[in-house]
Write a structure and sequence with these properties.
This protein has helices at 3-24, 30-43, 89-102, and strands at residues 48-53, 56-58, 61-63, 68-73, 77-82, 106-111, 121-125. It is of the alpha+beta class. 29% of the residues are buried.
């Protein structure tokens, strides 16, 4: 997918996340935001997969360690959701690792536990 299309797609995901945050606000569990964001993305006409397994590959061995991508949009944008006071380095590491093992280029890390959602969004591209 070309850069312009990826940018448009990430903008759509962010717009849907803002809509969810506007209606729900901060303070809920991650699973509730995940369910609502999935609904919002599908309502926007996007293909969404939820809780996508990410196998860890060590040398040539695939390990099923139970890692899961919260949402995968259009088989392109990986979306990892959080409800934390603030992002920690481990959250960024998680997204980058998921991108690597899932062979995806773009990821969004979204923290719904903020007053203004734009302060809780980070975009990654590898």
């Amino acid at each position: 997918m070309e850069t312009r299309e990826i940018n448009r797609l990430t903008e759509q995901v962010i717009g849907c996340a803002i809509e969810v945050h506007k209606l729900l606000g901060p303070g809920l569990l991650e699973s509730e935001y995940e369910t609502c964001l999935e609904h919002e993305l599908k309502a926007a006409g996007l293909k969404v997969q939820r809780q996508v397994a990410v196998p860890v590959v060590y040398k040539e061995i695939k390990l099923d360690c139970g890692y899961r991508i919260d949402l995968l949009v259009e088989n392109t944008v990986l979306v990892e959701l959080k409800t934390v006071d603030e992002f920690a380095p481990v959250h960024e590491a998680q997204v980058l690792t998921y991108l690597k093992f899932a062979h995806k280029e773009v990821g969004l890390l979204i923290n719904f536990n903020v007053t203004l959602l734009k302060n809780g969004i980070k975009r990654y591209r590898i």
